[in-house]
Amino acid sequence: MSGRTSLRPILILALSFTVADRAGRVGQMLDVNNAVAGGTVNFYCTFPLFRDKSNIVVQWWKGGEREFLNTQEDPRRSFHIESKASAILRIHKVRFEDAGVYYCRVQGEINGNGTGEQLDVSVPPDPLKIFTVPSANGSRMYRCQTSEFYPDAYNLVWRKDGRRLTAGVKTYSTKNTKGLYEVSSYLEEPQPGPAGTVYTCEVSHSTLKIPTRVNYIVEFAGNDSSGFFAWWIYLCGAIALLLLIIALVLCCKFCCKKPKARERNIQMRQCIRCFEPIVQNPKCKEQEVKKVNTQTPQRNTSKVEKANKTSSQRKKHHKRDKDPVFA
């Protein structure tokens, strides 16, 4: 935003010279000629003052390409008419491949092409990586690897517990197919330091305000193979943990399925017993019939005889009432 606001007076001054001339020249400006990867850059296209914004079309293209820039193909790019005398192209999260010359074209009330602006993109060498590598002569060797960077100007320094090292250092720089550079630096220590020794790889570059660095702390003293001892411990521990997890999963599956299988077998047996015919001994069957017959309730004879006597007495009394002699 500070670069954009600082360009406002320049744009106004340029417009003051072009308002009188309708066929004036289309100009361009760039807020930062050398951008750092990951930042934002702004291209400005200036032209004489116009009346109607709808009658002006501004398009952008990159040198070497046949088509105009399209925001749908790359959403990092955005462009619009900022005022009646300027348009802007903004690129977010700049990449190394965005470097090149950019032009603007104005059509409508004013027609013309911009003069073009060169964009250079620098890439920092961080993050760094440091690790040990095998050595045949029994010494310990450390390797410092940078990320892809540009330009190739750099300064790499090795330190041991803060003290700069120069002996046993070999550094190699290579350029890849994208035009970026990578550096690998080796430090050979004939006598490895004790446990707790700190080795530092430090790199300075034009894209960095302060040097970037990475540390390596010696965990075990001894020959160069000790550098890999800790990694083998971690690897073996991870494998053992994985095997333990697999064993627990298999055990849980087996234990959970076994009770279910038992329940299913018990249910099948019960169902089979329900549908099996029951065969009884014929003697037992006769005994059960006799028991049923003996258990049948018998009539109470005393109550029946008493009821018969009472009914006969009632009949006698009834006849006496009807007999005229007694009347």
Automatic annotation (TrEMBL):
Q: Where is the Ig-like domain?
A: 9-122, 125-215
List all Polar residues biased stretches: 292-301
Concerning PANTHER family, the annotation shows: FIBRONECTIN TYPE-III DOMAIN-CONTAINING PROTEIN (PTHR25466:SF9), T-LYMPHOCYTE ACTIVATION ANTIGEN (PTHR25466)
Transmembrane segments in this chain: where?
231-256
Q: Which PROSITE patterns match?
A: IG_LIKE, IG_MHC
Cellular location(s): Cell membrane
* Protein name (record): Ig-like domain-containing protein
Cleaved signal peptide residues = 1-23
The segment annotated Disordered runs over: 289-327
Sorted keywords for this record are: Cell membrane, Disulfide bond, Glycoprotein, Immunoglobulin domain, Membrane, Receptor, Signal, Transmembrane, Transmembrane helix
Q: Where's it mainly located?
A: membrane
**CDD domains (UniProt xref):** Ig, IgC1
A Gene Ontology cellular component where this protein is annotated is:
external side of plasma membrane
Q: Could you tell me which InterPro entries the record lists for this protein?
A: Ig-like_dom, Ig-like_dom_sf, Ig-like_fold, Ig/MHC_CS, Ig_C1-set, Ig_sub, Ig_V-set, T-cell_Activation_Regulation
- Superkingdom of origin: Eukaryota
Q: Name one GO biological process term.
A: cell surface receptor signaling pathway
Report how it sits in the membrane: Single-pass type I membrane protein
